[in-house]
Amino acid sequence: MDQEIQCPYCGEWVTIFIDPGGGDVQTYEEDCPVCCRPWVIHAVEEEPGGFAVGIARQDD
Q1: Is the dihedral of CA 20, 21, 25, 31 positive or negative?
Q2: What whole-number distance in Å separates Cα of residue 3 and Cα of residue 15?
């Protein structure tokens, strides 16, 4: 599942992939493809195949 998010560092909009097979609750780190700074991504399945996604700076 693709999700568009805004980088909390540089403000650019980027598309990330949430793996529906990864479980109902997922937390992982990923680097921004624009500025290369690390994010913490938290995804929670709200309905089958539908995830609510939150993103935070790793230094928060």
Answers
A1: negative
A2: 5
Q: Count of residues for the chain?
A: 60
Tell me the sheet residues that pair with 4: 15
Rounded CA-CA distance 2/59 in Å is 25
Residue in 56, 44, 60 with CA at minimum distance from that of residue 7:
56
Residue-range domain boundaries for the chain: 2-57
The 10s digit of each residue's pLDDT in 5-58 is 999 999 999 999 999 899 999 999 999 999 999 999 999 999 887 899 999 998
What is the phi/psi pair of residue 22, to 5°?
Answer: -85, 0
